C-alpha cells in the first residue's frame, strides 16, 4: 500500500522528500571499531574493509556522523591498523608483504578525519607506521601518494614526529622528487610544508639543511619561485630562508644566477609575509 501511495503521489507531481537517515550513535561506532580490531588481529583484510566501508558510509551521510565517528577514537584505531597491516620486514623496501589495498583505504579514510587526534598522531609516528607512510609516498600512484603526504603534513606540528621523520633515510629524496617532478599542486605544496617543518627543526637542523642543499633544493626552489601562486611562494620563501641559515645553503644561493633577480621580483609583490622573508635574506651578503 505504501509503495502504491508513493507511486500515485509521484505521478500527481507531489514532491517526494526522502526520510532523513537516523544519525549514527557512539555505541554503533564502538561496535564497528571492535569488529575492526578483531579483523586486525586476524589480518582479515575482507572483514576489516567491510567495517571500514560502513564507517565511510556513515561519515559521508552527515557532518554529525563524522563528528561522532571522530570523537569515538576511530582515527587511533585506523592508525593501529596501519601498523597491523604493514610488512614484517624491518627495512620496508617493497610492498610485497604489505596489504597495500587495505593501507590505501585506511589513508583515504584518515584524510577526511583530519586534523587527527593526538593518539593517532603518536601511533603514526612510530617506526613501523612512519616507514609505511614514506613507502607509500614513494609509490608512483597518485592516490596513495597524495593521501600519505597529506597525513604526514598534518602531523608535522609535533616535534617528536618530525624527529622520527628526519630519521628515515629516504624521506629527503622523496620530498625533493615531488618538487623536481611535480605531480599536482597539492602534493607539491604539502612537500614544501613538510620540508619547512624539517629544516625548522631544532635538533640536527644543520645536517638536514646540508642534505637538502646537496640534493639541489636551492635551485629547485628558485625555479619554482619564478612563476608560482601566492601561497606556494610564501612556503617556498620560508624554506629558502631556513636553508640560508647554513653555510652550504648560502654558498649555493650566492652561486646561483637566479637568486637576486628572483628575490628582487618577489619584494612587495606576493604578500607581507613573503616580503619579510625576502628581506631576511640580507645575510646573503656575509
SSE order = HHHHHHHHHHHHHHHHHH
Strand content: under 5%
Shape: elongated
When the domains are counted, the total is: 2
Mean pLDDT: 83
Low-confidence stretches: 89-97
- The count of β-strands is 0
For the report, how would you describe the main beta sheet? none
Q: Gap between N and C termini, in Å?
A: 87 Å
Radius of gyration computed on alpha carbons? 24 Å
Helix content: 55-70%
Describe this protein's structure:
It catalyses: S-ubiquitinyl-[E2 ubiquitin-conjugating enzyme]-L-cysteine + [acceptor protein]-L-lysine = [E2 ubiquitin-conjugating enzyme]-L-cysteine + N(6)-ubiquitinyl-[acceptor protein]-L-lysine. It comes from Acer yangbiense. One of its GO terms (molecular function) is ubiquitin protein ligase activity. It is built from 18 helices and no strands. By secondary structure, the chain is an all-alpha fold. It folds into 2 domains: 1-86 and 96-127, no CATH class; 170-275, no CATH class. The longest helix is centred in the first third of the chain and has 17 residues, at 26-42. The radius of gyration is 24 Å and the shape is elongated.
Amino acid at each position: 500500500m505504501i509503495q502504491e501511495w508513493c507511486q500515485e503521489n509521484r505521478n500527481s507531481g507531489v514532491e517526494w522528500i526522502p526520510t532523513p537517515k537516523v544519525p549514527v550513535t557512539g555505541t554503533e561506532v564502538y561496535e564497528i571499531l571492535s569488529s575492526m580490531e578483531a579483523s586486525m588481529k586476524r589480518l582479515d583484510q575482507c572483514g576489516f574493509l567491510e567495517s571500514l566501508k560502513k564507517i565511510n558510509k556513515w561519515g559521508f551521510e552527515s557532518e554529525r556522523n563524522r563528528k561522532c565517528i571522530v570523537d569515538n577514537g576511530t582515527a587511533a584505531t585506523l592508525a593501529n591498523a596501519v601498523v597491523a597491516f604493514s610488512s614484517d620486514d624491518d627495512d620496508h623496501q617493497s610492498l610485497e608483504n604489505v596489504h597495500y589495498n587495505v593501507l590505501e583505504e585506511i589513508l583515504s579514510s584518515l584524510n577526511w578525519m583530519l586534523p587527527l587526534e593526538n593518539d593517532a598522531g603518536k601511533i603514526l609516528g612510530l617506526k613501523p607506521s612512519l616507514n609505511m607512510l614514506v613507502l607509500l609516498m614513494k609509490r608512483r600512484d597518485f592516490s596513495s601518494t597524495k593521501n600519505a603526504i597529506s597525513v604526514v603534513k598534518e602531523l608535522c606540528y609535533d616535534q617528536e614526529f618530525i624527529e622520527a621523520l628526519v630519521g628515515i633515510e629516504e624521506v629527503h629524496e622523496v620530498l625533493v622528487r615531488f618538487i623536481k617532478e611535480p605531480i599536482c599542486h597539492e602534493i607539491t605544496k604539502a612537500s614544501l610544508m613538510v620540508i619547512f617543518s624539517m629544516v625548522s627543526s631544532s635538533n640536527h637542523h644543520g645536517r638536514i639543511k646540508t642534505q637538502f642543499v646537496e640534493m639541489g633544493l636551492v635551485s629547485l626552489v628558485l625555479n619554482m619561485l619564478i612563476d608560482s601562486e601566492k601561497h606556494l611562494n610564501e612556503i617556498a620563501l620560508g624554506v629558502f630562508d631556513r636553508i640560508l641559515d647554513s653555510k652550504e645553503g648560502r654558498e649555493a644561493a650566492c652561486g646561483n644566477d637566479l637568486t637576486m633577480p628572483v628575490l628582487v621580483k618577489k619584494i612587495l609583490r606576493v604578500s607581507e609575509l613573503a616580503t619579510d622573508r625576502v628581506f631576511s635574506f640580507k645575510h646573503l651578503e656575509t
